[in-house]
Specification:
The protein has 252 residues and is an alpha/beta fold. Helices cover 19% and strands 25% of the residues. The chain has 6 helices and 13 strands.
């Protein structure tokens, strides 16, 4: 699904311009939020049985080219990409756009206690804005030029709504929550997502780390049942989940 993509990042940012097929159906809903000024989308790649990694922690081969290209397309369309400190420390991601045409977003790491190593790739000075979100009284060790945004902590954790409000005040409106599982699940449980993109690879892992962890519901009838669209993307399947009706307003 490469045809017609090259001009999509530019057209996406222009009001009143439809994207060429098939991109309008998939990415058009990310242009404008229905709740406030923000659009918050999360993305996760998983196996058919809902795993993001084996019990050994290896997850680099779950999604193939289709899933990786989709992730980079999302990065090319948002203002900022957000990861938690555990994912940043374990995977040392670049969080740049490399597989498709488009600009790289602002890189944000949620680091409540200031433990991310200063030599992490996402903090490297490559001309892209870099932000560390940390606790009010924390002084993280970051390279020159990295912005530090402070939020109050609750039980040692930064709350999704406060993170989004802080990023909005920093001028960031379209935000991608990329990982890891704990961070994504926290934003979902807090009602802080407009959309959730789940890219399912044609693989069964069996035992392994689940893609999402949410509080238990007593009965299936109490489960969240949002509108869902499905798209076949080469040999993988994208589920575009509309969470806008559950989204909590973020005071900006």
């Amino acid at each position: 699904m490469q045809d017609g993509w090259a001009d999509v990042p530019r057209l996406f940012r222009l009001e009143g311009m439809d994207l060429p097929a098939p991109w309008e159906a998939i990415f058009g809903p990310l242009r404008k939020g229905s709740c406030d000024e923000l659009v918050v989308v999360a993305q996760i790649g998983q196996s058919i049985d809902g795993r993001v990694a084996t019990n050994g922690g290896h997850n680099e081969f779950i999604n193939g080219n289709a899933g990786l290209d989709h992730l980079h397309r999302l990065r090319a369309l948002v203002d900022a990409v957000v990861v938690g400190v555990s994912t940043a420390a374990a995977d040392d991601p670049q969080l740049t756009v490399r597989r498709v045409d488009g600009p790289s977003p602002v890189r944000v790491v949620i680091d409540p206690r200031g433990r991310l190593p200063g030599q992490s790739q996402l903090l490297k000075d490559d001309g892209i804005r870099r932000i560390v979100v940390t606790g009010t009284h924390v002084a993280p060790s970051v390279p020159r030029g990295v912005e530090v945004l402070r939020v109050p902590l609750t039980s040692g954790q930064a709350q999704p709504g406060q993170i989004l409000a802080t990023l909005a005040r920093a001028g960031l409106r379209r935000i991608l929550i990329e990982g890891g599982t704990r961070t994504l699940s926290g934003f979902l449980a807090a009602g802080c997502l407009d959309r959730l993109h789940v890219m399912v690879a044609p693989i069964l892992l069996g035992a392994g780390q689940p893609s999402i962890n949410l509080p238990n519901v007593r009965n299936a009838k109490d489960a969240l049942r949002p509108p869902v669209n499905a798209y076949v993307v080469d040999d993988e399947v994208l589920f575009d989940i509309d969470l806008s009706q559950q989204r909590a307003m973020v005071p900006v």
